[in-house]
Amino acid sequence: MADRETLEALAAFCERFSPTVGVEAADQPECLWLDISGVAQLFGGEAALVQQVVGDFARRGLTFRLAVADTLGAAWAVAHYTAEGDRHIFRPSGIHKGHGEKGRDQPSVGARSQSPAIIPSGETEAALRPLPVAVLRLAGEPLGLLRQLGIERIEQLLALPRSELTARFGPQVLERLDQATGRLPEPIPARMPRPRFHARWTFDPPTVRRETVEQALDHLLAEVAAMLAARGCGALRLECRLNCPPQKPLQVGFGLFEPTVAVRHLSELMRLQLERLRLTRPITAIDAEATATAPLERRQLELFAGDSPRSQPRQLAGLIDRLSSRLGRQAVVRVRLKPDVQPELAWQGEPAVDQGSRPRRRSGTVPFDTNSCPPRPLQLLPHPLRLSAMSLSPDGVFPGGPPLRFSFHSCQHHVAHAWGPERIETGWWRGQAIGRDYFQVETTAGSRFWLFRRLRDHQWFLHGMFD
Question: Which residues pair with 425 in a beta bridge?
């Protein structure tokens, strides 16, 4: 994960060299692809472009390998497997060794140290011939079959009849071979840069007046909200940085329950965060940015909304946002169901407003189908409460029926109706096994309880109450 994030950051840096930059499509990527078709002349030629890339990468302290070729496959092969003395490869002079290689369509990050390599146009196949068949990036079975037959180099594979390659080794070998030699196209998996929703306000002269800072923030949030609305998305997290040199910038931010572009709501939440700051030095500039976003939900308006259910979700979201900003996100939680058979472990509390750094599950969704379960009480005791109860049949004779009566809060409750049993058992891998028979019971007074009998000793417990 960290390697991919580093490559993503490096890909953004490489956009200065090419309009099309891609990250290798692999579980553990190690390469970047750059399409420099028609771009090299802007840098004075391919050799000059390579030299600039090498210099910039070296200044960043990177160890890498670089190769330029007509195809992605050839660039990858040369960057990984060629030696210094290959006569089909041009190595630009004036470039220090020890910085490695990458590809015309691909910078590849690796550990070996070698000068950059350029395969002149039209010499791709000749440069590939002495290389091992592993340069074709084949999956395990075709590569193993080639080695069993003694086919170690590309030139041996090219000597075989093309019509027999698919029949002998499957379609992947011929496809990869044609992509490397240029007979088939291999498009770059282009990286789409993420849009940045950022606005900046500079004070001239710097100010310590809180009212001035708040007014500037209102303008910035309106600008960020307009950027978001233009793309049909809303903010899930907002960050603001107040620059006050020579001290470190002051950071404030907050998350939201659902994406929004409501400027007034965003301003109220940001002012709540600013109340916690002391402006001891003049503020020179403010940066505001939506660091996490999500598509906006479109709700149809009603002519007479009033207290209709359609207006409640938005009001609830606003309340949760304000409470989380005032009390802290850990103080406002919601219940999330979990696929666990043991009732007290089938839920967890999590902050209603998250950090916006992970995909959000839509409100109300659960990881399993609750309709397949019998009704559950809304009020569940933190720990099952032991009861004194009389069963329908004496324990040990037929301990399977509901209770006739039980004591709770110093009162005797007589059971009028009962539903069950619903048996719940946990697996041996959970440690001490849990075995219970649950019953829904309704007393003669009209109260409804959720009771269970523990299977190992037939003891009764109260676990919840129905409203």
Answer: 435
Same domain, 169 and 238: no
Expressed as residue numbers, the domain containing 244 is 198-295
pTM, two decimals, is: 0.47
| Separation between Cα atoms, residue 387 and residue 268, nearest integer Å | 51
Residue 83 token pair: 């030696």
Please state at what angle helix 171-181 crosses helix 140-148, rounded to 10 degrees: 90
Residue 221 pLDDT > 90, yes or no? yes
Label residue 4 by pLDDT band (50, 70, 90).
Answer: confident
* 252 falls within a domain: yes
Is residue 177 within 8 Å of residue 136, measured between CB atoms? Answer: yes
Question: Which pLDDT value is given to residue 224?
Answer: 95
Nearest to 461 by CA among 426, 435, 428: 435
Which is nearest to 105 in space by CA: 68, 78, 146, 133? Answer: 68
| Domain presence at residue 335 | no
**How many domains in the chain?**
3
Q: Does one domain contain both 73 and 175?
A: yes
Find tokens 């080639």 and name the residue.
Answer: 146
Distance CA 196, CA 291 (A): 8
Q: What torsion do the CA atoms of 328, 331, 333, 338 make, to the nearest 10 degrees?
A: 110
